[in-house]
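Q: What changes when siroheme is included in the input?
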Amino acid sequence: MGYDPENPMADRITDIGPPHFEQMFPPVVKANYGKWLYHDILEPGVLMHKSETGDECYTVRVAAARLISVEHIREICDIADAHCDGHVRWTTRNNVEFMVDSKDKVQPLMDDLKSRGNKFPIGGTGAGVTNIVHTQGWMHCHTPATDASGVVKAVMDDLFDYFGSMTLPAQVRIALACCLNMCGAVHASDIAILGIHRKPPMIDYDAISSLCEIPLAVASCPLGAIRPAKAENSAGEEIKAVAIKQERCMFCGNCYTMCPALPLADPDGDGIAILVGGKVSNSKSMPKFSKLVIPFLPNTPPRWPETVDAIRNILEVYAKDARKYERVGEWAERIGWESFFEKTGIPFTIKSIDDYRLAYDTWRTSTQFKFTSHIK
Amino acid sequence: MGYDPENPMADRITDIGPPHFEQMFPPVVKANYGKWLYHDILEPGVLMHKSETGDECYTVRVAAARLISVEHIREICDIADAHCDGHVRWTTRNNVEFMVDSKDKVQPLMDDLKSRGNKFPIGGTGAGVTNIVHTQGWMHCHTPATDASGVVKAVMDDLFDYFGSMTLPAQVRIALACCLNMCGAVHASDIAILGIHRKPPMIDYDAISSLCEIPLAVASCPLGAIRPAKAENSAGEEIKAVAIKQERCMFCGNCYTMCPALPLADPDGDGIAILVGGKVSNSKSMPKFSKLVIPFLPNTPPRWPETVDAIRNILEVYAKDARKYERVGEWAERIGWESFFEKTGIPFTIKSIDDYRLAYDTWRTSTQFKFTSHIK
Amino acid sequence: MPKHDTPMMDELESGPWPSFVTDLKRQAEKSPQCWDILGKMELSFKDRITHWKHGGIVGVFGYGGGIVGRYSDVPEQYPGVAHFHTVRLNQPSSKFYTTEKLRQVCDLWEKRGSGMTNMHGSTGDLVLLGTTTDQLEPLFYDLTHDLNWDLGGSGSNLRTPACCLGKARCEYSCIDTQALCHHLTMHYQDEIHRPAFPYKFKFKFSGCPNDCVAAIARSDFAVLGTWKDDIRIDQDAVKGYINGDFAPNAGAHAGRDWGKFDIDAEVLALCPTECMRMKGDELQIDNSNCTRCMHCINVMPRALRVGKEQGATICVGAKAPILDGAQFATMTIPFIKIDPENDFEEVIDVIEKIWDWWMEVGKNRERVGETIMRIGLPTFLKVMEVDIAPQHVKEPRSNPYVFWGPDEVEGGWDRDVKEFRKRHAQ
Amino acid sequence: MPKHDTPMMDELESGPWPSFVTDLKRQAEKSPQCWDILGKMELSFKDRITHWKHGGIVGVFGYGGGIVGRYSDVPEQYPGVAHFHTVRLNQPSSKFYTTEKLRQVCDLWEKRGSGMTNMHGSTGDLVLLGTTTDQLEPLFYDLTHDLNWDLGGSGSNLRTPACCLGKARCEYSCIDTQALCHHLTMHYQDEIHRPAFPYKFKFKFSGCPNDCVAAIARSDFAVLGTWKDDIRIDQDAVKGYINGDFAPNAGAHAGRDWGKFDIDAEVLALCPTECMRMKGDELQIDNSNCTRCMHCINVMPRALRVGKEQGATICVGAKAPILDGAQFATMTIPFIKIDPENDFEEVIDVIEKIWDWWMEVGKNRERVGETIMRIGLPTFLKVMEVDIAPQHVKEPRSNPYVFWGPDEVEGGWDRDVKEFRKRHAQ
Ligand code: SRM
Ligand code: SRM
Ligand code: SRM
Ligand code: SRM
Ligand code: SF4
Ligand code: SF4
Ligand code: SF4
Ligand code: SF4
Ligand code: SF4
Ligand code: SF4
Ligand code: SF4
Ligand code: SF4
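A: The predicted holo structure follows.
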């Protein structure tokens, strides 16, 4: 009978949580849960996990746009039904994994996937570039300084060969966040694409009284750039509003999050910053934050060529210069950041010098540095 | 004629600065200024510098208490006159250097020095413990939390063998500062002895009005523990004074520096903290700050046994465990601070966890750590 | 709804990477509002700016989260997406699916929404992208009744927990990531659905220090599997790697000729603690100095295995930079047993200690990591009742500004300044 | 003045280290107030507390520094030290002395003060320890007239500059430390003697990155010698070290058997930039990657010499922890020629840029390092008019909070919200 608007509380069900994961496991996974011994990457995108029972689980990993239709999901289901007796999974980076329990099932599965045009490129394993963790951008969010899906498509079209191969010194994890909220958690990525604003918020006097609590708006600014102030709306009425010390603003957007009457977004003001050298894993070195190396690139839809080129350049210099197993950040620290800028040819700007909290720790308090071309 | 109180401005001379350094140079130094090729440490305390002219300068370095009498200086002059044609120097760490221009003059000089009891111990070079940089303590300062000369004498009596030998993995620089002002600049020493207070300031209501500017006293507190407050003095008069939130105080003493009516010093409250692992030179690793490893040791004149033992213990564990050329801080970082505490047996206390500014950078944001006995 | 002229969108159909545009067009055949999605995206590409209004509080009755409201600022031009709310379905732990369940979701979403999804959101939810307010209650009804599936979190509450695939398909996993993740998700349904916190709070669970779900970077409460005893060594397999029988790092570097495997350069020299050595052709590990960084195991999975005495390290307080700068989670519990038998009691105990404190002292919109920054790690560790250890810090403090209590100091703090002056003339 | 009973002081006469107590007793024969010094020290040892009053503003006419006032809080008990002011004599650069000069100082101080000194104070002065107010002017007269010697600094002024011995007796020195130190001391007599700064300001000069005068840790303005070209290598001497003809590190480790010298382990492996290698028995250095840390030169002084193109790196803002925590000096000028010929013009230019800015924006009792912390390194570097380089930081910022000016952004900052709303309905 379904939902009855007349009587919305009728046999309402709540707090039942997600379906139990075990129902979702393929048989080979259920049977060998916790028994895995080792794995091999047979070729890019193809993993074999060996169990102490002797069983083997073959995984074929394929790329997916994170923004996908139910039609596309149905096609994935068709493939899973045909080859993986009805099981499939998504990775923590938005790739899709098809698993089969014997080697001879791998080729047919791959042939099927390849037969479907560019929908299911195989790869994303090992020392390559896997899928980009990203966010909403113009597709769904209200605070973005750039788009997400479009930029990701442009970048991955360009880096496509690195997705299907394992030729880099180590895995390179790229992430995109469309504003400083960093839903993509780009603060710890080998290469991070970050949407940034560069114009202070406008004040919409006609909306502020109805939409914002002035004290919250004032408190929202980490730099105290916002203070309560009287103003006049279009109707000529004096209203309680705010005033903004523009030169104090660093465009974090937190005020807009708290108060819709303070929009910052702007076609020319907004764009992309590139950060590099972050990592999450505890392997070898401890986790590292990404560091800002390119303060601004313009928003140039549909293909953001400046951003695409900047990333390829960093990736290629890294690929040439870094040692086996060396993550981008480990490489930059070994050669020294001055050499990073030298080798990549990225101009070093004052914007890369920290002047926020904890800034002192990034200053160079030593005579140890290299005489790169930066020093005339 | 000299100074005439009747007429103080008579032929007054000012701003003539110090004597010119060149008048002070021994001939061999003047002749070979800027021409030195290399040096050798012939034995502890004895340096030979070779010049491209072929000249050699032999230096015999001897310890001195930094607090010395003019009688003692005269004796040094006698020695310098007898052996070094009237030249001598002090090092940046309060040792005295006698220089001669030929090898055969070295032995007579050393014999002379040795003939004068314990006044002129030879050493302080290379991979040993040299003189302690220190400050005034109870001998002359108004803010000390411990003494200087007495503690230094006690510690160096105990470490004496390390002054006259070169058996350590690297040079070990010990410094003492009698309060948090750190005139001894102990913030970058292999082993630092620091006088600390542990009782919040008292408020002398009878003195505060005459001695202090309340706003300066209030502003002096980095933790905002001091606020203006009315109070009553012994005479029963209401006066402008301050109130102190004692639990906010971390005993830096800055308020006392600014306002004499706020004394902190106390026989039981005051004592010594030990910091380790700092370095100044840019050799190998960049300069490092000393780290607080023992938060408190009592003031126990005349010989401060707890402090003496603590330092010897650290030094001996370091001597056994560190690699050649490894400074104390480089050693601790290589083995990990948890291992430093394990090996030295120094109990790790919550006091060593930073909760001041920039504290976050010292927290461990990784799963990388060793299972020492600290973890039950 | 009509098609719109979308040259820039169309451009994104070219290229080898799967195209969301092509996919949108495909879905549009069944869900015409997708034409408006495309049209409106084209407008944003043209204007280089978002065309969504700020916020929009919508939801289903009795829940404070799980749905993010969205309204278009050009509703007339693209009526199909005038309302475009997202629905966050709490994904099954580690994102395995049966096609049966997935198809149910597809049918439901084609009926009740735009037919577009995010597989998955950054927090881990299965995100249904775009529907209208009137569809929310019916959708929730069908979801709970027909799919018996529930919403995830949004707002100032516990966010949808997530985990790596762990023991399901990884030999490195030291904990039952899914079991832990699912159990806590069920245990805290109320906290997920009804905001009662100062700000959002996130759980993430990784089976080992490789941290494949980025817990230490992206969760307020990060549980990472680890072990306490020795790395298990199969010396024959070590020889196998040396002889080139097995590809190092499981073949992760096979795409390039890095030369013959060199165990000294590739393993021993890269061990951050230098705690490995070769005695002849036998590999020796000084486990007491190992920090379980995983590198050697990653490079030689056939030869090295994580230890047998398994458990987890708990780190607290990761977050994105707004507002004090990004934080990684800080190591708080060095080692804890993760025990499904007793319903993960120990873990729950830790969580509630954190929440009790944070809910009491945390300011509005202050993540727990920021609260710890503001109030201090020492205080937080005391609240957590953990044994203070050097492991909690990278290094001891370098400033001398230590707090002491009157009880810690002989004679306490009460002093009589007049007495003092008798001995010390002013 | 009578002797006092000083059991604890007496205890400090034992032991192998030179005893300041024995020395005090010796001086007491000529300067009886030394008995009171001993007596009063004994009292402090007994009471475990200082017996000096706070502060005391004394000085010589026309000078705002050079003398630190001290008064006893037990004047009756120890009248000899009721007043006990210190006089800071500006030491000759790098502390070489002729016995003639020293004897003059001795005579002067025996006449005008306690006969006790500090050789030297932490800043570098020759400190005369303890005299009475009435002696100050006569002492100053004799000092300037008979010794033609002047006072050093104290208070909120330029403190007495100090330097390492540099080229006088060290093969590593890349600059004329004494000449620079002396010249600036003379050039800035007024700044040394008459406080006009927000707070104290210190100069220190080291001839090379070994920094034997601790400039980078202890001075607001630290000049450290360095070079720009290549390390000079004497390959025969390299072989000499390898063959054991020369002791590594000039014999600094001779006291212990560290085994045969191993150039790989002791030099190459410890090079922080890994920029050295042996080609056969020839040592090669990739100087472009060298950071001039000095290690290899320190270990093999006969084989390696600093480069020929010499100059200095200037670092700014070191200080002790009061109040924001200790700071090392921050690298500001990567390379600057140090040229006695033109009276060090370039250096003076740098100093005055710093002072002009600091005196304008610095708060009362704010060291320049704290001012830079408060206002930001980028602003400071702009003020210094240096080319911004990655060398200024250890690493780029990790937070995204970048300032932009209206001039840097297309269209500037002036926008009309009403226009905006036309395109974006609220
Ligand atoms: C499937 C997935 C977990 C999941 O639950 O979905 C996964 C699976 C594996 N990871 Fe991972 N990792 C996955 C995300 C991650 C992440 C998270 C992220 O990138 O956002 C990380 C942290 C990244 C970082 O450090 O910034 C991650 C850091 C690692 C590492 C450490 C690499 C390093 O050197 O730092 C290893 C070890 C290795 O690669 O040898 C690893 C190893 C593995 C192994 C080999 C584990 C195993 O034995 O099966 C798995 C296959 C590796 C491969 O793909 O080549 N996995 N792995 C995730 C696949 C994402 C994708 O589609 O590409
Ligand atoms: C005489 C003096 C300079 C002066 O103008 O007075 C001096 C003289 C020399 N120093 Fe120094 N240093 C002197 C204080 C310092 C200081 C400052 C301090 O300790 O407060 C430092 C920085 C300490 C630190 O890093 O914390 C210092 C760090 C060095 C280093 C770096 C050592 C390291 O590995 O970090 C070297 C290189 C070496 O020792 O091979 C060095 C090397 C030298 C050489 C070998 C230079 C040379 O070729 O002559 C000189 C003899 C070394 C020796 O004594 O073994 N000197 N040296 C100072 C003697 C102090 C004393 O009486 O003990
Ligand atoms: C949908 C999602 C991005 C995506 O496309 O995947 C998302 C979308 C939004 N995030 Fe987020 N966040 C999402 C994962 C994250 C993550 C990543 C994670 O959870 O691992 C982070 C960084 C980690 C963290 O929590 O710090 C993240 C950090 C933020 C922040 C900054 C919070 C902070 O303390 O720094 C905000 C700002 C806020 O809360 O007001 C925010 C706010 C928002 C809002 C609600 C916008 C706002 O200003 O209120 C976005 C709604 C967009 C929309 O219209 O749908 N989002 N957000 C992710 C949730 C999907 C899911 O449930 O699976
Ligand atoms: C005499 C001397 C200690 C010694 O025994 O050698 C000294 C003694 C005092 N210092 Fe100092 N400082 C002395 C070198 C230092 C140094 C070391 C250096 O200059 O290399 C430092 C650390 C480096 C620095 O400047 O940061 C130092 C950092 C301080 C501070 C903290 C300043 C800061 O910004 O952190 C104070 C507190 C203040 O200025 O009020 C201070 C204050 C003082 C006062 C004036 C006490 C006070 O509260 O006003 C002391 C007077 C003691 C007395 O009665 O004689 N003294 N002071 C040193 C000067 C002798 C000389 O001229 O050669
Ligand atoms: S990163 Fe910013 S713009 Fe992008 S989804 Fe998150 S909150 Fe929205
Ligand atoms: S954008 Fe950020 S910095 Fe600028 S006013 Fe708003 S809150 Fe303040
Ligand atoms: S460290 Fe403190 S007590 Fe010691 S001399 Fe300096 S200011 Fe005085
Ligand atoms: S000692 Fe320091 S912290 Fe305590 S009240 Fe005085 S200024 Fe404040
Ligand atoms: S985190 Fe560890 S256990 Fe989990 S998938 Fe990654 S490697 Fe395997
Ligand atoms: S896990 Fe890491 S630390 Fe431990 S032995 Fe292996 S490489 Fe070394
Ligand atoms: S700093 Fe350099 S030049 Fe000066 S004495 Fe030390 S080693 Fe020699
Ligand atoms: S000076 Fe330092 S960095 Fe340069 S080559 Fe020598 S050891 Fe390496």
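Observations recorded in class: Chain B is about 25% helix and 20% strand.
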